[in-house]
Amino acid sequence: MTAKPPPKPPRARAPHGRKSWHPPSRAGGPRPPRRDLAARPDDAALLYGFHPVIEALGNPKRRIRRLLLTENALGRLKEERPDIAQEVESRAELVRPDEISRLVEPDAVHQGVYLEADPLEPLTLADLGPDALVLALDQITDPHNVGAITRTAAAFGVDALLVTARHSPNATGVLAKAASGGLEHVPQLVVRNLSDALEELGRRGFRRIGLDSEGDARLQDLGASRPTVIVLGAEGRGLRQRTRSVCDVVARLDMPGAIKSLNVSNAAAIALYALSAPVTEPAGSL
């Protein structure tokens, strides 16, 4: 008579109200569930990634709604920012990485940190001071580019990013990740019509510099006077005709190589550096 195998032990159940954890399925296995993008609030600024969220938590103008951290992210926070780790831990929900992955875009690198907050209040033209430095974006719609420009603007102490209500990406998600915390230091100034806003800035004494690879003036010859607004156009199309017409000067970046045009975020960085340095006289001049 063949002995019966011993009965299998009962499967352990998760505590009431919590889902049990299962390891990721291997190749060929069932697909993971679709990311739950619908669970994100429509009216919130959604930030993810270590640096964007940490900078937002340090911004007194941010009203925090919800903060999620993984154990690994909390460990990193304790190592790199012990000054705020205890306070942040007290406000955060500790979750698994996949719980954050369901709330962000596919392939987003969230680094185990996710934040929902109120959007920051935009500036108005009246908020700009007499020595302000502003970057104006003429229908630049790529959030990666706008985020990179915002990060550069924060590094150079730009006072505001002038954008239009339409044809501009929202200051959240991908843009915020690319900005790497820059959104907390460079407020946006949202207008309905860019050309009208540039005309108003001109009446207030702003020097309006359009940037174009075929501009008449060399950017490095213009000097670092304030107030100034630098106007950047979308890649490929460049500045629109009316935008160009309200600029006081359209300047170029002289490039020594075979390719004369740059990614708009790189051009913004070089332009800000050129305008922050003193004007140098050409070789051989008196």
UniProtKB/TrEMBL annotation:
GO terms for cellular component: cytosol
InterPro entries, A to Z: Alpha/beta_knot_MTases (IPR029028), Ribosomal_eL30-like_sf (IPR029064), rRNA_MeTrfase_TrmH (IPR004441), SpoU_MeTrfase (IPR001537), SpoU_subst-bd (IPR013123), tRNA_m1G_MTases_N (IPR029026)
GO BP term, example: methylation
Gene3D superfamilies found in the cross-reference section: 3.30.1330.30, 3.40.1280.10
Domain spans labelled RNA 2-O ribose methyltransferase substrate binding: 46-123
Stretches with biased composition (Basic residues): 10-21
UniProt KW keywords: Methyltransferase, Transferase
Stretches the record annotates as Disordered: 1-38
Top-rank taxon: Bacteria
A molecular function GO annotation: RNA binding
Name of this protein: 23S rRNA (Guanosine2251-2'-O)-methyltransferase
Organism: Enterovirga rhinocerotis
